From TrEMBL:
It comes from Blomia tropicalis (Mite). One of its GO terms (biological process) is fatty acid metabolic process. This is Uncharacterized protein. GO terms for molecular function: L-gulonate 3-dehydrogenase activity; NAD+ binding. The keyword Repeat does not apply. The keyword Oxidoreductase applies. PANTHER family: 3-HYDROXYACYL-COA DEHYDROGENASE FAMILY PROTEIN (PTHR48075), LAMBDA-CRYSTALLIN HOMOLOG (PTHR48075:SF1). Residues 187-248 form the 3-hydroxyacyl-CoA dehydrogenase C-terminal domain. It holds the Pfam family 3HCDH_N. Residues 3-182 form the 3-hydroxyacyl-CoA dehydrogenase NAD binding domain. Belongs to the 3-hydroxyacyl-CoA dehydrogenase family.
Length: 310
């Protein structure tokens, strides 16, 4: 089976590893700190075994067979050599990512896909000085990637169309749901939409319109119920006799309300402290790992339901 190189063994690196090995790819995992790979491989094995026990393991191979496809790369060259795809998963630091890809650029083939998991850095900023810049692309997953399948594929102006197609094909092959941006844009798509929601939620708290708890309920018990299965345009389409009627009925109201939303908040000062204090009261820092597990269990159940319903 083809070789995948994973650079960075944190949460995202481990998740990509588990996704790729679930379909029989040989993953060579590298981290600049060797002990991190040791710990990552231990965690990957434990997670695969637990997923198998719960009947949630992806792919057709059992946990032991999948883990057999995880390999320790002792050097960056070990991870890069003969790979068809490199998935970089280091810390979200632009200079660090540029340095990593500069090192990869010096030793990689003329055919390998050079892919970053960055959540916000424009691909052109990372790739601008690379010799192999036409092979560079962004593949931004949504956390946690093993249970939330969306991946944003973001090309730069230099990205070869074959690289884009190969990245899209690979992600589809391993069960992810890629969306392809026609051009790069700050924040990509997920974060631009997420930030718009956060900004308005912040303004509503700052203007003392609603409580922190209730605004979260608006999403989890209202909009989120629909958005788990359909996007905003299909939601609108179904809420009227099609989009033509929706625009005819609601476009003016949307415009009028949107003009009242105010400037983009900085999210600092008294309102930020109010939100932080209330959230810490609901979920103390000591309870965050437990609550993340709670989140993941529900994402697993939702993912299973969506597969069943589809």
């Amino acid at each position: 089976m083809s070789k995948i190189g994973i650079i960075g063994s944190g949460l995202i690196g481990r998740s990509w590893t588990m996704i790729f090995v679930s379909y029989g790819f040989d993953v060579h995992l590298y981290d600049v700190v060797p002990e991190n790979v040791t710990n990552a491989m231990k965690l990957i094995k434990e997670q695969l075994d637990e997923l198998e026990i719960q009947g949630l393991l992806r792919g057709q191979l059992n946990a032991a067979a999948q883990f057999g496809h995880v390999h320790r790369a002792k050097t960056l060259a070990d991870a890069v050599s003969d790979a068809i795809h490199i998935q970089e998963c280091v810390f979200e630091n632009l200079e660090l990512k540029k340095q990593v890809f500069s090192e990869i650029d010096a030793i990689c083939s003329n055919t390998v896909v050079l892919c970053s998991s960055t959540s916000c850095f424009l691909p052109s900023l990372i790739a601008e000085n690379l010799t192999h810049k036409s092979q560079f692309i962004v593949g931004h997953p949504v956390n946690p990637p093993y249970f939330v399948p969306l991946v944003e594929i973001v090309p730069s102006k230099w990205t070869d169309q074959d690289i884009l197609k190969r990245t899209d094909d690979l992600y589809r092959l391993v069960g992810q749901k890629p969306v392809v941006l026609k051009r790069e844009i700050e924040g990509f798509i997920v974060n631009r939409i997420q930030y718009a929601i956060l900004n308005e939620c912040y303004r509503l708290i700052e203007d003392d319109v609603i409580s922190v708890t209730d605004v979260d309920s608006v999403m989890s018990d209202g909009l989120g119920m629909r958005y788990a299965f359909m996007g905003p345009w299909e939601t609108a389409h179904l809420n009227a006799q099609g989009m033509e009627e929706y625009f005819a009925k609601y476009a003016q109201g949307i415009n009028d309300v949107s003009r009242t939303m105010g400037p983009v908040p900085m999210m600092s000062g008294d309102t930020a402290k109010l939100i932080a204090d209330q959230m810490n009261g609901i979920i103390p820092e000591s309870k965050l790992p437990e609550r993340r597990q709670w989140r993941d269990q529900r994402l697993i159940a939702l993912s299973q339901l969506k597969k069943k319903m589809n």
